Amino acid sequence: MRWVSVRKIKAVPSRVFHVVSDPEEFQKAIPGGISVEYLTNIRSGVGTRFRAKRMSRGKPMPFDQEIVEFVPDQLVRMINVTHGTTWDSTFTVKPDGRETILTLEMESKTNNLFAKAMNRLISGMLKKALDKDTDSVKAYCER
Questions:
Q1: Domains of the chain as residue ranges with CATH
Q2: Which of 6, 64, 77, 131 is spaced 20 to 30 A from 93 at the CA atom?
Q3: What is the pLDDT of residues 43-55, one digit of tens each?
Q4: How far is CA 44 from CA 2, 83, 85, in A?
Q5: Cα 34 to chain center, whole Å?
C-alpha cells in the first residue's frame, strides 16, 4: 500500500530538509515525539540507524529506522521493519519560489497475509497520521 502527503511550506528548502532528515529535529516538530537514540555512530546521512519513540494512545512506541538514501536539501529515505511489514518512507523537498514543497511518500510491503489485511484496515488512520506529521513539520518550519 502507498500513502502520500504534500504540503507547501513558507520556509527555505534547507530548513525543511533539516527538520525531516535530522531525527532529533523531526521529533521536536511532531506531536508525541519523545526521544531519539542513535544505534550507530553516524548521526546523519546513509547508514544512520536510530530508535525513535513516539506517544501512541498514551503509550511510548519505539521504532527503529535506517536512512538508506540521502541527497542534501532534496531527499531522505528511511526504512523501518515492524511486525513483518517494511515501511519505506521518502521525504522530498523542492523549492517553489519563496516556498518549499514537502512530499512524504510511505509504502508498506509485506508477504504476511494478516499484516496485509491489518494495513488495509488502518489505511485511513495512517493517512491521517502522515497528514498530521506534515502539518506539524509545516508549522514548525514556519515559526
A1: 2-132 (3.30.530.20)
A2: 64
A3: 999 999 999 998 8
A4: 26, 26, 24
A5: 15
Which residues have C-beta within 8 Å of that of residue 137, sequence separation ≥ 6? 7, 9, 16, 19, 20, 26, 29, 30, 102
Q: Residue written as cell 521493519?
A: 81
Q: Phi first, then psi: what are they for 26, rounded to 5°?
A: -60, -40
- The C-alpha cell at 142 is 514556519
Helices 123-142, 113-121: inter-axial angle, 10-degree rounding:
60
Tens-place pLDDT, residues 1-60? 999 999 999 999 999 999 999 999 999 999 888 899 999 999 999 999 999 998 888 888
The string of DSSP codes covering 67-106 is EEEEETTTEEEEEEEETTEEEEEEEEEEEETTEEEEEEEE
pTM of the model: 0.92
Counted residue by residue, the chain has a size of: 143
Q: What is the DSSP letter of 1?
A: -
